[in-house]
Design brief:
The protein is 37% helix and 14% strand. By secondary structure, it is an alpha/beta fold.
């Protein structure tokens, strides 16, 4: 069919490409940063309890139960909490509501690849600031006129963590635009910037239940910040979709926040496996960036990363390779369970022995 029916903006879009979701069940899937451990059993129970005739009714458009659970967990008020259909939707509303200004948006040259996609969708000018040679973020590079600042912390796909003190340093010097800290992976090794939201009204922190709470299939994201920022997001959301979270998602997410013990146990298991896998890969000759996430970013000085990714697939192991300047010799490897990590290491040992 001809594209003559498209709106003009559609021709200009370069959509985000998510990690491969293969249909083969026997693969060791280490390419999309999913949690290797299942969600809390209390989440499953809560979702089952919602499977009733009540599904004929709309969910709470404001998800008040969930906002209260999040507020209780982080020591804020429900008026400081926004929720959406995964953090990607939350981020989309942020770009729409808070970043459409004459001055350009600033974000790192190597970061979550959805950011430039949102800019294309909403017509936002942006400037990327290069990460340092060691792939850390230099906050001093963001002290220029801007229409907003956004960065992932820990960063994706590098896994590098920016200390909370550096974030506060930037906030103290950038008070005239919104600073968004995208904390999809913060529970695996960092301190959340939510601790700063009451002191900095221009700070907005986003998180997701997809990673540390093992709910990528439920699609629940959140933002925490000053009530005026939250109101802007609510106005956009209610001009787009008043019911982004269904009854099952709300019930499951509330239960996930209630089970602190499961959350702590599984995230600590991932952290321990990350440190062990990092050491094992270094013993095989890999250079591995320091990671505070549930993945590692690694390269081998004697092997092309694309070749390694293809070779791993022959062993039924899939990882993520980005064909992007500066990082095209790295592989992003999700931390799996011990058996998955062992399969990865065994495959690498065989592949590396070929040379």
């Amino acid at each position: 069919m001809s594209h003559r029916y498209w709106s003009p903006v559609v021709h200009r879009l370069t959509p985000y490409v998510p990690g491969e979701q293969p249909r083969l069940s026997h693969l060791v899937k280490l390419n999309t940063n999913e949690n290797p451990y299942g969600p809390s059993p209390k989440v499953i129970e809560a979702i089952r309890a919602e499977l009733s005739d009540a599904l004929r009714l709309y969910p709470d458009p404001n998800a008040e139960r969930l906002k209260q659970a999040i507020a209780d967990d982080y020591g804020v008020t429900p008026a400081q909490v926004f929720v959406g259909n995964g953090s990607d939707e939350v981020l989309a509303h942020i770009f729409h509501a808070l970043f459409q200004h004459p001055a350009p948006l600033l974000f790192p040259d190597i970061t979550y690849s959805f950011y430039p996609v949102y800019c294309g969708l909403y017509g936002i000018d942006y400037i990327t600031r290069p990460l340092a040679e060691d792939f850390t973020l230099r906050v001093a590079d963001y002290l220029q006129p801007n229409g907003g600042i956004i960065f992932a912390n820990p960063n994706a796909p590098t896994g590098c963590l920016l200390p909370l003190a550096d974030i506060e340093w930037l906030l103290e010097r950038n008070r005239d635009s919104v600073v968004v800290v995208d904390e999809a992976y913060i529970d695996f090794g960092g301190d959340t910037a939510i601790a700063l939201v009451n002191r900095y009204p221009n700070l907005l922190v986003t998180q997701t239940l997809s990673k540390s709470r093992s709910l990528a299939g439920l699609r629940v994201g959140l933002a925490v910040g000053h009530p005026e920022l939250i109101e802007a997001l609510e106005r956009v959301k209610n001009s787009f979709n008043s019911y982004p979270l269904d009854r099952l998602a709300i019930a499951g997410a509330v239960a996930a926040f209630a089970d602190r013990e499961h959350f702590e146990r599984t995230r600590q298991a991932v952290i321990a496996s990350r440190e062990e896998l990092t050491a094992d890969l270094q013993n095989l000759g890999f250079a591995v960036l320091p990671s505070a996430a549930n993945f590692i970013f690694a390269r081998h000085p004697q092997w092309d990363a694309a070749v390694l990714a293809v070779a791993l697939r022959e062993y039924q192991v899939i990882v993520r390779h980005f064909r992007q300047p500066r990082i095209d010799q790295f592989l992003r490897i999700t931390i799996g369970n011990p058996a998955q990590n062992a399969a990865l290491l065994a495959a690498f040992q065989d592949i590396l022995a070929e040379r």
